[in-house]
């Protein structure tokens, strides 16, 4: 019989797997964590065949399976796009928010207004740590947890910075923007005063 302790372990394994995929897509890890994903797939299959200890445990198991399926589809799509040479901007914003299977309560208008007031006035001038802190604080302000670690954030930000500077022909700055219940990074060309 499946118990809640086993589900907690599977949930932790899913969170760790998500971090490993983020590290891969950010360029920190060189190979995709397919072995870990297969292990979790087998584990979930085994749990579903064992039978559960009641409706609450069954419901939690089905939720975990749904989340895992949503993440798996997203990872497959992103792998395919990467192999085809199509780049995806805004990866951090997509992975920081949970898949559609999870419901996140909408933040209050005051929380969004407060987060935007702080974030919009603080445009990054190269301080990745400060930008990461603002990003995490804005996520917290709207009631969401950040699932991106500092190293993956820095790697992805640097990749986006190089790509945008090449396209725009000059330095870019990033700022944290809150749009409804979504927290994103927005890029813009650096002002002339900063370039000189």
Topology:
Elements: H1 4-25, H2 34-50, H3 55-83, H4 91-96, H5 109-120, H6 128-141, H7 150-168, E1 172-179, E2 182-189, H8 192-195
Antiparallel strand pairs: 1-2
Helix pairs in contact: 1-2, 1-3, 2-3, 5-6
Helices and strands, in N-to-C order? Answer: HHHHHHHEEH
Poorly predicted ranges: 89-104, 119-126
* Mean pLDDT level: 76
How many structural domains in the coordinates? 2
- Fraction in helix: 55-70%
Give the strand line-up of the largest sheet. Answer: 1-2
Q: Quickly give the structural class.
A: mainly alpha
Largest sheet: 2 strands, antiparallel
| Total of helices | 8
Question: Got a strand count?
Answer: 2
Roughly how many Å apart are the termini?
A: 67 Å
Structure description:
The protein has 196 residues and is mainly alpha-helical. Helices cover 63% and strands 8% of the residues. It has helices at residues 4-25, 34-50, 55-83, 91-96, 109-120, 128-141, 150-168, 192-195, and strands spanning 172-179, 182-189. A hairpin with a 2-residue loop joins strand 1 and strand 2 (182-189). Residues 89-104 and 119-126 have low confidence and may be disordered.
